[in-house]
Amino acid sequence: MGHPKKxxxxxANSKRMHWHxxxxxxxxERRDLATHQLDEWEELRRVASEIKTHTMxxxxxxxxxxxKNATQKGLHIHWARDAKEHNEIVLNLLLTHGAKRVVKxxxxxxxxxxxxxxxxxxxxxIVDTDLGERIVQLRKEAPSxxxxxxxxxxxxxxxxxxxxxxxxxxxxxxxxxLTREARKHLREKFLxxxxxxxxxxxxxxxxxxxxxxxxxxxxxxxASLPKLHIASMGxxxxxxRLEELSVFTRLLARSATxxxxxxxxxxxxxxxxxxxxxxxxxxxxxxxxxxxxDFKESLNCIRCGACLNTCPVYRRSGGHSYGYxxxxxIGSTLGASRDLQANRTLPFACTLCASCSNVCPSxxxxxxxxxxxxxxxxxxxxxxxKKRAILKVSSWVMKHPxxxxxxxxxxxxxxxxxxxxxxxxxxxxxxxxxxVPKFPKKxxxxxxxxxxx
Amino acid sequence: MKIGLFIPCFMNELYPxxxxxxxKVLENLGLDVEYPMNQTCCGQPMANSGCYLEAxxxxxxxxKIFKDYDYIVAPSGSCVAMVRVNYAQFLEGEEGFExxxxxxxxxxxxxxxxxxxxxxNVSFPYRVGIHNSCHGHRExxxxxxxxxxxxxxxxxxxxxxxxxxxxxxxLRRNDECCGFGGIFSVTQEAISVAMGIDRVNDHLxxxxxxxxxxxxxxxxxxxxxxxxxxxxxxxxxxxxxxAGEL
Amino acid sequence: xxxRETILNSIKKNRPSSTIELPNTDISHxxxxxxDKKFATTLKSVGGxxxxxxxxxxxEFVAENYRDxxxxxxxxLEFNGSTKDANELETPHLLEDVDLAVIKxxxxxxxNGAVWVxxxxxxxxxxxxxxxxxxxxxxxxxxxxxxxxxxxxIDFSRAGYGTFISGPSKxxxxxxxxxxxxxxxxxxxxxxx
Lengths: 453, 246, 193
What we know:
The complex is a heterotrimer of chains A (about 450), B (about 250) and C (about 190). Chain A is α/β, with parallel strands linked by helices. Chain A folds into three domains: about 40-285, Rossmann fold (3-Layer(aba) Sandwich), CATH 3.40.50; about 290-380, no CATH class; about 395-450, no CATH class. Helices cover about 50% and strands about 10% of the residues of chain A. Chain A has 22 helices and ten strands. In chain A, the strands form two sheets. Chain A has a six-stranded parallel sheet, sandwiched between helices. In chain A, strands 8-5-6-9 form a four-stranded mixed sheet, with helices on both faces. In chain B, the strands form two sheets. In chain B, strands 2-1-3-4 form a four-stranded parallel sheet, sandwiched between helices. In chain B, strands 6-5-7-8 form a four-stranded parallel sheet. Chain B starts with a strand and ends with a helix. Chain B has 14 helices and eight strands. Chain C has about 190 residues and is α/β, with parallel strands linked by helices. In chain C, strand 9 (about 170) and strand 10 form a beta hairpin. Chains in contact: A-B, A-C. The interface between A and C is large, with 98 and 79 residues. Strand 9 of chain A pairs antiparallel with strand 8 of chain C, so a sheet runs across the interface.
């Protein structure tokens, strides 16, 4: 099922759809408020974009630098070509350390790699510790947003889930109460964990450390209690030096939630005393994207989620309608780059309104990427025969002005005299929720000709 | 100064009044305007569907028809954005393309940037909500975008302010997409209509009597919703207001 | 070929041959006329408090403001009210019961209410996240405007751990309702001395 079908299901519940839309628009407004407090906002975006572009163009150099400097600091670097290798490296580390219970903080990469089901299959207990992620994990759902994983759920639904799994009070869905209960439940998981897994927001080539940003403190708690900390990062997470963080830490949280910075911005250049810090660097198709000038910029993403919050389609269709790990504009372009066949409807889940490109802190021209992906969908013959035929015929007509005039004339004469039941038959998709325009007697061209006489 | 009038294909067929109003606005300002008879479509529907070969043929055709005019003016931000932003992929390096790209304007933009009229000598005593159509808004830069951190401006509002007795309403979401999106309006019908309803309601709640804008396509979509739901508001292309049609 | 080589070769093969220069990050940026005030209001907006200590010791401040707490731990050497020594503990897990941690902050950032915490002498960084309340003691002359100044003060030429803490731990994962106190501290006070 492609995006349109799943989206129309989401829209069908108008009340809930509007609730979802408003919740995310609220985040977008908070972002606007925060960004308008900085005169240098657009300058920050320019610099961020240039840093990322430069780094991606020299990615091999910066990754090797990172590896060298991290190794010097006693960190362990692993390289994974794909999801499978990533998962095996993680499992192997856990097994050699005798780790059975693992706490994990948010990492879209591990979602992409399907790490949780893989570890569970191998007898490891893996607990997502970000509150939103824990909620969707208990419900056996995927996150519907990269920053707000449970944004699709109402507090009553969260309450029910907690009742079932955490034995909370019946029908108590007060967010503070539920958060406190989750704190207790997860505190116990933290204290008994044998290892922790975190994502990586930034890896610094010059100093050989990684930076993780959270509001809840779950990444830090996890990475500060058990002896083993595994951090998984995509190859595109590396930045050259510490000073570039001044730009990214200013952009990230403001873009994501409108906060001036995340509560915790932690710089890991060492494990805890007596512990080990392992960093898994994952390619999984990313290096291929580097060669494509149309889509290379998508690697500049810092995963703030602003393009999701601003996207009028995402807000009204929900993250699950995309069917890809990362939803919204950035997910649509990453998904289409990864597997065009499977994600062929995603470049079209977009009105080309360009809001995403202008909200993006690293200035990725997201809507242009989706526009280009559409051409690849056609090139690959994935558009659908009917649509393709209609467009071919109409293009042909458009090359013959007299024919176009004739077709226009016939339509304008015929449609107004047809009975409503025919004009609004099933085939008229436009007419499901809208009236068709009132057809005029004469075209502009006809009036123009008459006037000239 | 010879102006080539570029009327979007669907406007020619469905909106002769708004098209004629465009011509009238330009002629009222004493400009020499010609409508090339063999023009059809700029190719945007094909390009936005990914059908680049078809789009390229139509782009070449468009260039041939319009390249010799000093200015090319159209009552549509979207079709102009196609020429100015998306034609490069198809026409880069072709003779006359640079001129075409640099001299194709949306009507209001043309008035604002080139002609700079100080009065329109028309009245429009209604409360108006401006729909900032996305392509004009974000590709052509007709007004400051809510996403960006630049000083506020609106070429549309500035030109409309030359109309006597007009009143503007303030929307809650000043530049959200109406959901038309070309083929999106049918391939993603449910979302498209939902977005349109939300947009119309924003204008209604702001007590607008008329929704105006530079793109008939967005207005057609919203009018379709207004008519279906029998809402007490109507849409009107900006050219009609500027031409003094009440 | 190892995965390392495969990945690096693939990058080399696919990346463009030329690139733009790394831009200068030291752009002209916001400066605050009253950094103290900006820091305090920003920290307040993210759920924390800022206090300037005048003619009083940290000991006295804690005694007055944190009554009836069982477990107080400190990494701030001038503080004498600890009930146990964190560095003596075998494992960080034993810090789970800490009601108040008095810790040392290196400097504060006005634009975002954050304090840089990096203390190589603290053996258990978990303290920052396990304690229910954090009192971060910072030199009152060390508030900078923005992250641009902040990163000039940070050095990672040696291994270690450091974190910016901006207010108490929080989440808005349930219906966007802001709840203070997710996994980390429920209260954060920055004390300028």
